[in-house]
Write a structure and sequence with these properties.
Two copies of one chain form a homodimer. The first copy, chain A, has two domains: 137 residues, Rossmann fold; 182 residues, Dihydrodipicolinate Reductase, domain 2. In chain A, 31% of the residues lie in helices and 24% in strands. Chain A has nine helices and 14 strands. In chain A, strand 13 and strand 14 form a beta hairpin. In chain A, helix 4 packs parallel to helix 6. In chain A, 54% of the residues are buried. At the A-B interface, strand 9, helix 5, helix 6, strand 10 and strand 11 of A face strand 9, helix 5, helix 6, strand 10 and strand 11 of B.
Amino acid sequence: MSVTFDVAVIGATGTVGETLVQVLEERDFPLGQLHLLASEASVAQSVPFRGRNLRVKALEGFDFSQVRIAFFCAGEVVSEAFARKASAAGCAVIDLAAGQGAPLVVAEVNPDRLELLQAPLRVGNPGSIATALALALAPLRSLLDLEQVTVTACLPMSAAGRDAVRELARQTTELLNARPLEPRVFDRQVAFNMLAQVGTPDTAGHLALEKRAHLELRELLQLPLLKVAVSCIQAPVFFGDSLSVSVRSGSPVDIEAVCAALSQAPGVEWTGNDDYPTAVGDAVGQDVLYIGRIRAGLDDPCQLNLWLTLDNVRKGAALNAVQSAELLIKRLS
Amino acid sequence: MSVTFDVAVIGATGTVGETLVQVLEERDFPLGQLHLLASEASVAQSVPFRGRNLRVKALEGFDFSQVRIAFFCAGEVVSEAFARKASAAGCAVIDLAAGQGAPLVVAEVNPDRLELLQAPLRVGNPGSIATALALALAPLRSLLDLEQVTVTACLPMSAAGRDAVRELARQTTELLNARPLEPRVFDRQVAFNMLAQVGTPDTAGHLALEKRAHLELRELLQLPLLKVAVSCIQAPVFFGDSLSVSVRSGSPVDIEAVCAALSQAPGVEWTGNDDYPTAVGDAVGQDVLYIGRIRAGLDDPCQLNLWLTLDNVRKGAALNAVQSAELLIKRLS
């Protein structure tokens, strides 16, 4: 009989949690019992899994000693309150929230990180921006003398949750029907518009998402001095991240070598430069990072420019967490 | 009796030409006769002006000696074919097309450039990206040791003309009504999506718009060695440019001094950092560049980050051309 693992998904009714359950179903994950957990508000909802509906149970009071692996997809507050409890019960934790200090893993970038883990087993999942950047830049570490990464990240509504997705649809319909616009989730028109920030900036003007991506990319690439400048923009797009990236190298960039490295890199699909990928047309629903528009600076041979698109909910969150779990169970078996 | 100037607008039925006629009407421009010119296909259309409809006449065969000033808004091919003819007839030319070699002027940035002009009088109008960047950076020249400007420019449909504006509306409606999508003006879905390029790249991967902005910004700021990296993205927005900008200075940036300089700069409106501007909410229909999210690099005191929004058709094209003409007529009077 093959070994299986009982698993808990915390935040199972959110966009990421729901996708995570789908990914567990799609992949050949050696799943035993699956416990879907959420806050009281979502209890008694059900989530489809392998042809039947699984009922969502209350996180509060759940006995984590029943499961071997727990995926935390319910945000920082919930991770902070419950992940330690899960660890204390002997359960391996995959934490999708920011800032909980667990070592970050992207399966294609630093799988070796998991081998060095000490009990209690806790793995962090980076946000979608750092995941995209790490997938693109890790294969280039030996080719580039990486000094600075400057990124404009156009984020979709799904990054802000289901209410934001509905808000874009509603605002768009109102505008196309010439009805008065009533912003709700956002404080202004987001349909047919670009918002300069996602969340509220700190006193120095930086967003939490920008600071998170900065720290996470340094950690994933193991380049603690790498300069990382991220600008997060809310785009009128439902699903998928689009990143415009400029990299400064300490020496001239060999573009052919970059293309060759990226066309062989794991978790990455380069469209070739006679085409380019888009979030909606390529990345959404897929397991890999799509790359296009690879080019040197117009006046700066030490600059590399790239365009990246990624399914923010899937490879940018849920899939990556499941991949970490797949690596982890080799140690748990 | 006050002096007036007879004027021709070439490309009067396009988005920029039509706005230019509106701007002439709104401002106290000392206009005599106004001749609206276009290709044969648009002849006999009419354009509203000062309460009546002006008939569009054929550019082919027009006698430029009838006018003192000609605005060329019909693109490079038309400018190349007819601007010299206008000059030879003694007419001052304001050229809105790229690459015609006339000295570029943004009224708030380098008005002195017009004083040095020799006959025949020809003035170039930069594109909207360089105009936005020059308005923001010119007031900072004495504060920053400008080394490199890295820009992601999210461009609206109006930058690609009326057909593109209609295409976004049509694609959006099709998607919201769950009808099959039929891209026409673009080769793929642009509604609820971001396209990585605007136009076709050259063999090195650069777009004409990116190369134009690069050359124009260097010229406007009179910094021939400034490094300029522009990435142009087609956003699902009808009107208004949104630019995410990172500037590298040779020395640490004094953010307070930058804010102070920009809050006094001509043609610029800084929202303050407790708010931010958007293209739709602020810039469209306005005469100034809106600036927000002024901040230093998170890990790099020599970096300055900015968010810019501009009405690409108005200040990014038509208004700027009229402002140049207003400066020029001081010499013609």
